[in-house]
Amino acid sequence: MAALYQSQSEEASTPILRQYLRMAVRWRYVILGAVTACFLLGLVVTLLMTPQYTASSTIEISRESDKVTDLQGVERDASIADQEFYQTQYGLLQSRSLSEHVAAELKLIDSPKFFEMFHAGGEDTAFKLVDGRFSPAGRATRERVAGEILRKHLSVNPTRMSRLVDVSFTSPDPAFSAKVANVWAQNFIQTNLDRKIQATSYGRNLLQGQLAQLKQRLDESQRQLVSYASSAKIINLPAQTGNGGSSAERPIVVDDLAALNDALAQATANRIAAQTRYEESGKAGASAQALSNTAINGLRQRRAELAAEYQRLMTQFEPGYPAVNAVKAQIDQLDSSIAKEEGRVSNSQLADYRQAQEQEQALKTKVEQLKEDYLDQRRKSIQYNIYQQEVDTNQALYDGLLQRYKEIGVAGGVGVNNIAVVDPARVPKAPSSPKLLINLAIAILAGLGIGAALAFGLEQMDEGIADPVGVKRALGLPLLGSIPKVDAEPSEMLLDRKSDLVDAYLAVQTNLSFSTDHGVPRSFAVTSTRPREGKSTTCLALATTLARAGKNIILIDADMRVPSVHQSAGVPNKRGLSNFLSGEDNVKSLVFPIEILGFAAMPAGPLPPNAAELLTGDRLGHLITRLLETYDHVIIDSPPVMGLADAALIATRVEGVIYAVEADAVRANLAKEAIGRLLTANARIIGSVFTKFDAKKAHYGYGYGYEYGYSYGRKSEARAA
């Protein structure tokens, strides 16, 4: 049993991919049907579709047009931020206004053939023909519908990592497709130019208004500046341009103050020089002017001569000598003249000194006055500078706008476009759709998807047990063996010891021998969820294989509602189990041999009014005990579990129960409920037998294994024969 459980555990852990493959194989006809239906549907739809022709025109969209008024460069490199620009262009290519413009240029708004080509219009009064023409009253509606049709059949496909864009149009008419694609590209270029011209004109008008406003502000600020300068008596000298630069305006008081400072410095120097000369003049004629005075020098020279003469006479004569006195008188007169002359020089130097001092003081007073004037003007210049800055700002704004106004005028006159047609559309030779192979491939894939969905749904809704693994997975019972589905009568196939049926039940018998410590249970019953699941055949086959193994076997037909064992033996069902359960004790009279299969059997006997009442007593257990004294094994063909109490009553009297499960017939939930009833009655379920198993229809992996096992050796014998 351990080996059996291990085998079941390994089968239950089947990989998920194999489970899906088994499901696909099981429902292969559903999947194939879905694929076939979708394939045929795709084929029919493709053949019935109207051929469509696609024409493409390739255009180049540059980030900016060539610059004319700016000398910084010719073109600007594109960047990630330029994606916004290109997305805008793609949106403009599919704009409503452009589509309606194309429709108007191609005269599609009043063309019945155009609307008929695309099956547009319907019952709208705008599309009703009057004398073969549309009514003018519905032109606006037809224009809107024509634009929608063009946009619906237009595709814009940018080429990656480039500025190229393919503008494609699809219609049933190849020439019309090429015509629309080319006109669309040309109109896009023209509308782009129109937008630029409109933007230029709007910009010029806007700048012109702003220039007028700025000119008025500039004039007002200049008048305010001049008025304040006049009231504050601010006089500024104009700016001077020198080598390497220019100086700003400066107040005139600055120049006056600088000049007076220079004059004051010179007056101070003159005063110091005069003071020095005056102080030197008081040193007994030792001043520089006295020494350089010609008259004083002549008098001093004459005195020196007379003093020499006086000294000579004194050596010869007495001091009172008239000649000496005369010379002395001359010397005194000369000293008086020299003193007078030096006094005159000294007075002249004093006058110069006082004049220099007065001039210096006057300049100091003037400088101080200019300093006060300068500081006062500095205070007034704060407001003046504010007005001046306002004038400068307005002047700069005015000059900048004026320059921009001139540049826009030049650019508007040039009219350079940043969009160009690279390859015009040509009339397509072959239709772009429908594509038969692609449509069929899509139909097959859709069929596979639908088939897989149907298979998955059916698998989820199907509660039947389709393969041996499902017995363990769904019911939790160990599998004793799988019995193949046979076309011949089971009793006849049991006679052929090399038949698939015999081989399968021999495997069941082998697994059954490991169910207890003494081998095959001495008494066991075979039951199922509902009738015709192969329980009676299982009883008959196990009795046959055990008998051929040298065991003394008796088979009891306990299905007293639908008995079947007597039919396999070909004997009447006049006496049997029901007689013993009713009180008869002669067991031998109720048993008959089935010599062809090698075991004995006890039929069900006459059908009682209520079989469950007969089974509630101890008579069945007593019967099994008596039979085990004679037979090695007692096999009971039990009624089905569902709807009856018979199977549960019989299960409590035997050593174990074998549960027969028909492949793809019984629902798993129903079988679980039946097993639950047996377990509630404390019955021991030995295992299950999977009956009527068609290996060819089973999930993937079982067909080869079971068919190979059942037919092993048959083909070689057939070839040998």
Overall description:
The protein has 721 residues and is an alpha/beta fold. The chain folds into three domains: 22-49 and 434-461, no CATH class; 163-178 and 190-235 and 250-427, no CATH class; 477-715, Rossmann fold (3-Layer(aba) Sandwich). It is 58% helix and 12% strand. The chain contains 25 helices and 18 strands. It has an eight-stranded mixed beta sheet, sandwiched between helices. Strands 4-5-1-10 form a four-stranded antiparallel beta sheet. Strand 14 (592-594) and strand 15 form a beta hairpin. Helix 16 crosses helix 17. The longest helix has 93 residues, at 322-414.
Please state the overall shape, judged from the principal axes of the Cα atoms.
elongated
Q: How helix-rich are the residues, as a percent range?
A: 55-70%
- Mean pLDDT across every amino acid position: 80
The span between the termini is 40 Å
Based on secondary structure, the structural category is alpha/beta
The figure for the number of domains is: 3
- Across the major sheet, the strand order is 11-18-17-12-16-13-15-14
Domain Polysaccharide chain length determinant N-terminal: 17-106
GO molecular function: ATP binding; protein tyrosine kinase activity
GO cellular component, one term: plasma membrane
Coiled coil: 204-231, 257-380
Give me the secondary-structure topology.
Layout: H1 2-12, H2 16-26, H3 28-48, E1 53-61, H4 83-93, H5 96-105, H6 112-117, E2 129-130, E3 133-134, H7 139-152, E4 154-158, E5 164-171, H8 174-231, E6 236-237, E7 241-242, E8 245-246, E9 250-251, H9 252-281, H10 288-292, H11 294-316, H12 322-414, E10 419-423, H13 436-461, H14 468-475, E11 479-484, H15 490-493, H16 500-512, E12 523-528, H17 535-548, E13 553-557, H18 565-569, H19 577-581, E14 592-594, E15 599-602, H20 611-615, H21 619-628, E16 633-637, H22 646-651, E17 656-662, H23 668-680, E18 685-693, H24 702-710, H25 714-720
Parallel strand pairs: 11-18, 12-16, 12-17, 13-15, 13-16, 17-18
Antiparallel strand pairs: 1-5, 1-10, 2-3, 4-5, 6-9, 7-8, 14-15
Helix pairs in contact: 1-14, 3-13, 5-7, 5-8, 8-12, 9-12, 11-12, 16-17
